Amino acid sequence: MQRLNEQSNIALKRTVIVAIFAAVAVVLSMVESLIPLNMGVPGAKLGLANIMVLTCLYFLRARDAMMMVLLKTLLTAFIFGTFSSFLFSIMGALFSFVAMWFLLLIGRDKLSFIGISIVGGIAHNIGQLTAACIYFNTTKIFYYLPMLLIMGVLTGIAVGIAVRYLVPSLSKMSLFEGFLA
Amino acid sequence: MKRGDLLLIGLVVIIALAFIIPRWFDRDASEKNHNELRTAKITVDGKLFKEVTLTQEEQTIEVENEHGLNILKVHDYGIEMFDADCPDKVCLSFGFVDRTGGTIICLPHKLMVEIEGPSEEDGIDATVK
């Protein structure tokens, strides 16, 4: 009985963390859309929501993080997206999720959060460009990839630094006990 | 920051620069012979809407359909999105495009502008029997 209680307790905590992270990620994307940022690369964003995805991947299992990514993308699409923009963001989000999950599995000791978030950002860009290629039926869109790569490095560094501060402070909270890797 | 991170950053920057730097040279070379005019292909929903020659004189092209309105302006051998009634205005941030391969995209309106180089037409011109 005690053991069963503990298990359902963990499951409940997981659900709560996924919900909180998804909500914070949505808020971060809203904040991001308020920041007028034009760095000469069309469509380039800071990718603040990536902070939450990476932190979630660090604490929880891959399927929970996947759930969080889907929730976040759906919520943002409902709040300010159209159907086509939803297709693009889900494509980018899934690419970035898979890339970061894979790197956390194999490269945890070789790469820090900065490296992982850079790859995540770049995978997000590639996912969106691939979606655009299918949508417009042309490969010429990849013309913008080099500029997006440079932006991905810069924003990835910023996101990685944020995660490096966020993970230790969250680890001190009682909610995250039992999830420390 | 670990060594792997620095390696990764270096690798990505080198790959990106390897694509960007040749384009600068390409641009310098093509600025000398402006007599070869480029064309911009405007497509809506994957279907060709119009092909315009990028002249120095100003021309305004209005693209209006069930998705919305986009106003494109051609000037100084290039093209730019002048105004649009889409919600995100990302297409306006593409700015003035004048290089071959350059594109302007308005996602909500399914509109795409691609610049095609003069070399392709030269290729067709050469096949005279």
From TrEMBL, chain A:
Keywords associated with the record: Membrane, Transmembrane, Transmembrane helix
Transmembrane segments: 12-31, 43-62, 74-107, 113-136, 143-167
InterPro entries linked: Hpre_diP_synt_I, Hpre_diP_synth_I
Signal peptide feature range: none
UniProt protein name: Gx transporter family protein
Organism name: Paenibacillus lutimineralis
Automatic annotation (TrEMBL), chain B:
Annotated TM spans: 6-25
Organism lineage string: Bacteria, Bacillati, Bacillota, Bacilli, Bacillales
InterPro entries to which the protein is assigned, alphabetical: NusG_2_sf
Name of the featured protein: NusG domain II-containing protein
Keyword terms, alphabetized: Membrane, Transmembrane, Transmembrane helix
